């Protein structure tokens, strides 16, 4: 690649798209993005993009070596725990600089009704019979809630086929973010929602549903984040990630 430094961004988030847009404009950098392939029509990136898994740690380590990657930035969702662990181990094995871009977690504001739980089973146990629940945790979480017969669920998906396999009694909504506080309030009111179940993803894009829930006095069941693998350099913003990538040290990416 004509001496250009090679950066792989593990993406799927708004931060990863912003980071790739900035890297696409940086001279001396050849960036690429990798997406998990969970969404049929992912948002566009400004750098070459691959879709689908690597085949675990071994596959990712092989890719890092074959593509001569100089730095790996994990900008995946805060709940993509397996990807985070695989990235950390693959980078360690191959001696590749590794950074985790992790947006700050949400915190409840004054008057917000949060019940924080450690996992999906605990979230299911926190819901009272007769609740009408907006499940903002994706279709993959459905098995944890499908046996709550006296609880109504509304699930929002991006792809029209995303709700396949969910109980027939559930209401499936198809929409693509971002959403506004006003649109979330309208959705919750129209669906007669009493409880919101969500994961503590953090960031600005998903905050609208929490503000809408607070405005309507809804109870929020908040699932805590998984722990970040130890010993990994972590930053909270795209600007900090770019500063890390501009590091002028002996293994930095500044093409001096």
Features:
256 residues, alpha/beta, six-stranded parallel beta sheet, 7 helices, 12 strands
Describe the overall structure.
The model has no long low-confidence stretch (mean pLDDT 91). This protein is α/β, with parallel strands linked by helices. Helix 5 crosses helix 6. The strands form two sheets. The chain has a six-stranded parallel beta sheet with strand order 3-2-1-4-5-12, with helices on both faces. It is elongated. The protein is built from seven helices and twelve strands. Helix 3 links the parallel strand 4 and strand 5. The longest helix has 14 residues.
Order of helices and strands: EHEEHEHEEHEEEHEHEEH
Secondary structure: number of strands: 12
Mean pLDDT: 91
Strand order of the largest sheet: 3-2-1-4-5-12
Given as residue ranges, the uncertain stretches (5+ residues, pLDDT < 50) are none
**Share of residues in strands:** 15-25%
Class computed from helices, strands and strand pairing: alpha/beta
**Fraction of helical residues:** 25-40%
How many strands, what sense, and barrel or not for the largest sheet?
A: 6 strands, parallel
Give the termini separation. 16 Å
DSSP helical segment count: 7
Silhouette? elongated
Q: Radius of gyration, Cα only, in angstroms?
A: 20 Å
Short description:
The protein has 256 residues and is an alpha/beta fold. It is built from seven helices and twelve strands.
Topology:
Layout: E1 5-10, H1 14-24, E2 29-35, E3 49-51, H2 56-66, E4 71-74, H3 81-94, E5 97-101, E6 113-117, H4 120-125, E7 132-136, E8 152-157, E9 171-174, H5 181-190, E10 195-199, H6 207-216, E11 219-223, E12 233-235, H7 238-245
Parallel strand pairs: 1-2, 1-4, 2-3, 4-5, 5-12, 6-11, 7-8, 7-10, 8-9, 10-11
Helix pairs in contact: 1-7, 2-3, 5-6
């Amino acid at each position: 690649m004509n001496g250009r430094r090679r950066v792989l961004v593990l993406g799927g988030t708004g931060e990863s798209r912003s980071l790739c847009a900035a890297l696409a404009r940086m001279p001396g950098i050849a960036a690429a993005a990798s997406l998990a392939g969970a969404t049929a029509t992912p948002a566009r990136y400004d750098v070459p993009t691959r879709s689908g898994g690597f085949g675990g740690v071994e596959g990712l380590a092989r890719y890092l070596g074959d593509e001569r990657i100089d730095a790996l930035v994990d900008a995946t969702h805060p709940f993509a725990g397996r990807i985070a662990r695989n990235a950390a181990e693959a980078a360690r094995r191959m001696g590749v600089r590794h950074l985790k871009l992790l947006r700050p977690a949400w915190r409840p504001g004054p008057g917000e009704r949060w019940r924080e739980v450690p996992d999906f089973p605990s979230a299911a146990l926190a819901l009272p019979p007769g609740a009408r629940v907006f499940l903002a945790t994706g279709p993959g979480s459905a098995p944890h809630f499908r046996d709550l017969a006296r609880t109504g669920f509304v699930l929002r998906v991006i792809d029209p086929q995303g709700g396949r396999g969910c109980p027939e009694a559930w209401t499936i909504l198809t929409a693509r973010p971002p959403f506004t506080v006003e649109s979330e309030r309208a959705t919750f009111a129209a669906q007669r929602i009493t409880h919101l179940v969500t994961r503590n993803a953090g960031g600005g894009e998903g905050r609208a549903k929490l503000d809408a829930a607070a405005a309507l006095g809804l109870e929020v069941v908040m699932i805590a984040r998984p722990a970040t693998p130890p010993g990994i350099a972590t930053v909270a913003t795209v600007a900090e990630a770019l500063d890390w990538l501009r590091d002028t040290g002996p293994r930095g990416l500044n093409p001096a």
